[in-house]
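User: Is it possible to get a 3D structure for a protein together with its bound compound? The compound here is DAU. I've pasted both below.
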Amino acid sequence: MKFLVTGGAGFIGSAFIRLVLSDPPPKPYVLNLDKLTYAGNLENLASVAGDPCYRFIHGDICDGALVNALIGDEKPDVIVNFAAESHVDRSILSPAPVFETNLRGTFTLLEAARAHQTPRFVHISTDEVYGSIELPYQANEDFPLRPASPYSASKAASDLLALSYFITYRMPVIVTRASNNYGPYQFPEKLIPLMISNALESKPLPIYGDGMHIRDWLYVDDHCRAIRAVIERGRPGEIYNIGGNRALTNIEVVRRLLQAVGKPESLMKPVADRPGHDRRYALSSEKVMRETGWHPQVSFEEGLKRTVDWYQSNPAWIARVKSGEYQSYYQQNYAGR
Ligand code: NAD
Ligand code: DAU
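Assistant: Yes, that's possible. Here is the predicted structure of the complex:
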């Protein structure tokens, strides 16, 4: 089995590569195509860098010549497309790169996969495409798409594009839509790692609006196991939701992590809300569980403990990713908020 993983130096892609390379023999061969944007970090893959079953290619999924040559030469059995501009706040500040990578990059990959008849194409997407979900509903795969941010609109567009390749060309495309991931190696722009790293420095924790927005939390390794199950047992042309079935308000999440690092709740600082902020995400994962046998294994309590332990044990990783560009992003997104 040969995988072409895109965006494998990011948070979820690197967890996926570490997972499949730790499988018992016969091991897969993994090609990792990554542009190394601010979010890409080869340190996340240090444990597999010397593995003869792993190869890194520095490049952009929007580069048609590169992508076409790579897929034509290597003939992967499956392409797993993680590469994306993945942060909602950045997509609000600067939407152009989001559409370039998330939409044109996906198109470029699909065209190359079509030309070379790649046997499986798994497009990694998000529950944000459904927009805010009213209580007591949970979105299943047939829910209408109501993306609210440039990020989620670009993901919804790329999902539809990928699915059109199944309908029109019978290309074996599968789309997965996961809820909020957390775990080690997550870039500290997202809620959980940002709050842990600020708390470790006793810096204020910026809570958008009233902090009562609800997200469904999924431990990253559970997400990666679900993707592996979908590759093995999912049906072409289908969408699979992947949720953690653990809904919490942001305030509750932050309270628990403050407790875990032993810092006071007074560090929480309400700030101006995110524009277009979705109130509640809620996902039904019944289909992926029924069709693949996958179910989440890591409770939020256990996952948060593992995550906090990892950040506490890796101050040098945090310091490096928070130097340089991160400082100007933080200033732009939070100063005067
Ligand atoms: P991330 O931001 O941590 O990593 C993205 C990776 O993609 C980085 O390594 C970056 O260098 C690479 N990349 C960006 N543009 C590229 C390009 N043009 N060409 C090649 N590589 C490029 O993202 P993540 O949190 O790991 O998310 C991975 C995927 O999962 C994304 O598609 C995202 O939409 C989706 N997703 C994320 C979550 C979440 O909670 N983080 C939940 C559901 C779905
Ligand atoms: O639902 C899946 C999505 O989850 C993924 O598709 C995205 O790639 C990922 O970024 C994530 O999007 P969210 O916008 O839900 O995640 P974020 O971590 O940015 O925010 C989670 C919640 O926390 C949200 O309600 C906004 C709030 N928040 C976030 C930050 C960064 C704050 O209150 N303060 C903050 O500083």
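Residues 86-88, 126-128, 179-180, 190-191, 194, 206-208, 213, 215, 250, 274, 281 surround DAU (ligand 2) (CB under 6 Å). The CA atoms of residues 75 and 182 lie 32 Å apart.
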